[in-house]
Amino acid sequence: MKLARFELDKEIYYGVVEGDRVKLLEGTYWDSLQGTEETVSLSEVKLLTPISPSKIVCVGLNYREHIEEINAERPEMPHFFLKPTSCLIGHEDHIIIPEDSERTDYEGELAVVIKDRMKAVSEDQTLSYVLGYSCFNDVTDRSLVFKSMGYLTQAKGYDTFGAFGPFIETGINPDGLDIKTYLNGKVMQEDNTGNCIFNVAYLLSYISRCMTLYPGDVVITGTPKGVAQINPGDIVEVEIEGIGTLRNSVKAAG
């Protein structure tokens, strides 16, 4: 089941995507996944980020080839940090490169959306707390990361640096999905989530022992090899098997 959050006639709705149409839900994902009889064409709505989270938890250094690419050491435990919700944009929104950025990169990632409150959940139970999965572009000011890992919040926290969507897919296994990132139609990143050091179940259990995850929270699970710079005029697409394609254009500030 593909879930969408969208704007229609200046109102925000939740729905179930069926082909090129979306069936309006009665309330939100949390109220009911029961659809109404009313449907609208996807071409008539403005897709928003599929959820509005209280926090975005980012996992770094999780794909083996990406670790080699940046000459980092393989972590013995998950490395994670937070990204502010103010960075979020939806499908077809613009990524804005800050005036002071020396280099801004894309990072295509699998996003996990939480449906129930999680605190210290065992690994074998974590997936039952998941609403579904989506695409995420963890846009990063690489020049700040090169200066110091202590700059991660700033490097990844600029407005528009969290492209998210277009849908949440509820019916897939997160651990064997092909993931690709395209820059102007050229494949730049290509891997499979099965090649992560830490799978989704382990990550959620580990994170939930540190902090409580709430319904709607998002955990992004790391980026594959192939990160590169984006520039004004570029089109970036993150495609994940079974979910869809998140597409954003790039603009300069101002």
Helical residue percent?
A: 10-25%
CATH topology label of the largest domain:
Fumarylacetoacetate hydrolase, domain 2
**Percentage beta strand:** 35-45%
| Element-level helix/strand string | EEEEEEHEEEEEEEHHEEEHEEE
Distance between the termini: 39 Å
Shape category: globular
Instruction: Describe the sheet with the most strands.
Output: 12 strands, mixed
CATH class of the largest domain: Alpha Beta
**Alpha-carbon Rg, integer:** 17 Å
The chain-level mean pLDDT equals 95
Kindly name the structural category. Answer: mainly beta
Multimeric organization: single chain
* Alpha plus pi helix count: 4
Topology:
Blueprint: E1 2-8, E2 11-18, E3 21-25, E4 35-41, E5 46-47, E6 56-60, H1 64-69, E7 79-83, E8 88-89, E9 94-97, E10 104-105, E11 108-114, E12 130-138, E13 140-141, H2 142-147, H3 152-157, E14 162-169, E15 178-183, E16 186-192, H4 200-210, E17 218-220, E18 235-240, E19 244-252
Parallel strand pairs: 6-17, 8-14, 9-19
Antiparallel strand pairs: 1-2, 1-5, 1-14, 2-3, 3-4, 6-7, 10-13, 11-12, 11-17, 12-14, 15-16, 15-18, 18-19
Describe the protein:
Strands 1, 2, 3, 4, 5, 6, 7, 8, 11, 12, 14 and 17 form a 12-stranded mixed sheet that branches. The longest helix has 11 residues, at 200-210. With 254 residues, the chain is mostly beta strands. The protein folds into 2 domains: 2-47, SH3 type barrels (Roll), CATH 2.30.30; 56-252, Fumarylacetoacetase-like, C-terminal domain (Fumarylacetoacetate hydrolase, domain 2, Alpha-Beta Complex), CATH 3.90.850. It has 4 helices and 19 strands.
